[in-house]
Write a structure and sequence with these properties.
By secondary structure, the chain is α+β, with helices and mostly antiparallel strands. It has helices at 82-94, 98-101, 133-136, and strands at residues 4-10, 20-29, 41-47, 68-72, 110-117, 120-128. Strands 1-2-3-4-6-5 form a six-stranded antiparallel beta sheet, with no helix packed on it. 12% of the residues are buried.
Length: 176
């Protein structure tokens, strides 16, 4: 943070009329070793204008509209299939259980795309949704508690499941 400004053009080879041209904020994403790979993942946030006076919700691959999207580099995944296959399997395992839990969905979906930055080819990426409160159908903080999202902030003992920290209090616990 803050995201750098970018002018983004995303076109669908099978449906040229669905080409998206938009202002956006862009930044590298990933932690630990993945941040230093030669091919890096990006986080995109679509804006109404260059000054980021508002956000634009856009839909790709007939998915839920959102202003935040991820471009997964898949650098270590030489077959470029791990994200798509595991997301598909998780979706199949969850189908039918969502209505009873009240959650919208607990998986991310996306599709493959080729990325160019300043007319330089960067390779095949997986354009995917973000897991967030909106995607999961959770209520905002301050309303009633319906669920919690955990995220590892660093690769330390507790996030690697090699040690345990005291669990009494605090918003953060052992890098979670």
């Amino acid at each position: 943070e803050p995201k750098g400004y970018a002018w983004v053009i995303i076109s669908d080879a099978f449906a040229p009329s669905k080409t998206v041209k938009s202002h956006a904020g862009i930044e590298y994403r990933g932690g630990g070793g993945s941040y230093w790979h030669p091919k890096r993942s990006y986080s995109l946030e679509f804006w109404d204008d260059e000054a980021e006076t508002g956000h634009s919700n856009i839909s790709f691959f007939n998915l839920l509209e959102d202003d935040d999207w991820l471009l997964e580099a898949m650098y270590r995944d030489k077959g470029r299939m791990r994200k798509a296959v595991t997301s598909g399997l998780w979706k199949e395992m969850q189908d039918g259980t969502l209505s009873s839990s009240g959650l919208r969905k607990t998986w991310v979906e996306g599709g493959f795309t080729e990325v160019f930055v300043n007319a330089e080819y960067r390779g095949v990426f997986y354009l995917t949704e973000r897991i967030d409160r909106k995607r999961l159908g959770l209520v905002p903080p301050g309303d009633r508690i319906e669920g919690v999202i955990y995220k590892a902030e660093d690769w330390q003992g507790p996030t690697l499941y090699t040690m345990m920290y005291d669990t009494t209090g605090g918003e953060f616990w052992g890098w979670w």
